[in-house]
């Protein structure tokens, strides 16, 4: 169950990430294309070429989202963005406005790479930006920024990175709690609130699942339909709370009597269904008798009372070409027989 939720969580998160990468690639492609076209009319040929290469890279990232692993497009988007930013800071872009673009790196990095990897990559990115800015002109000629500008650029980039990380962290927390809440609601929809056993809907689903699994392997499947005898009298004598206590304690007792792979479900008010995979009706009779006898000997302590109850059990084994409804109807008929023959007994198919 946990593995299933984790898988679902991962696939939903991946789908969301894929959508953001596609969108970012499209926007990135359009902006760099537009800037490349504008740059065509200027005199900076290298900038024009770089912008067109970036535009093509985003286009590739856009198409690779659907075709390849999402990490390929994430790598393309992130590192081509980094390279473009390094070039803009190095060259100064148009009228030394190139560094203004580096702020988009922070939110995109933490979202696409995740919080931890995003922050590691952002630290490396900032180190390289600092090297470019403070590179001595006599080594390599590059755009010259004043010290005040450089310092403010780094501080505002750090602030932006911190805010992006904070936002990503809260987003992830909200996402995880929403998933946990939905898991809890799903769990509630499958369980009987009083006994915490599988409810009727859940039991029906398990039966269908077991039916196809066992029939594929040619293995038997049996069910026990258990009904408390004269339960109305228990309620009348000890009140509804006393009745509830009996149902809860017997549920635990049933679970103790069966194997891990079996399923005990609350089928109706005082009716329980026990699903026994890989069990023939003969084997199910032995289990049913064991359960009947343990209930007969069991004492439920309620306030100052000691409550004793008995149960009747109908057994049915799934026949070839039989539906689950027919299987249950058959068990119900056997249960009816057990009741009419005097209760506190097991009636086989
Ligand atoms: N306390 C409690 N009682 C319940 C619950 N669900 C059903 N019941 C009671 O179970 C009783 C079932 O009564 P009947 O259907 O007449 O059956 P019975 O008295 O067990 O008699 P037989 O089945 O013929 O042996 C009713 O009094 C219901 O109110 C529950 O969740 N808690």
UniProtKB/TrEMBL annotation:
Pfam families: GGDEF (PF00990), MASE6 (PF20966)
Transmembrane feature ranges: 20-40, 46-65, 72-90, 96-114, 119-137, 149-167
CDD domains named in the record: GGDEF (cd01949)
Membrane keyword on record: yes
Cited SMART domains: GGDEF
Catalysed reactions listed for this entry: 2 GTP = 3',3'-c-di-GMP + 2 diphosphate
UniProt superkingdom: Bacteria
EC number of this enzyme: 2.7.7.65
UniProt-recorded name of the protein: diguanylate cyclase
UniProt cross-references to Gene3D superfamilies, sorted A to Z: 3.30.70.270
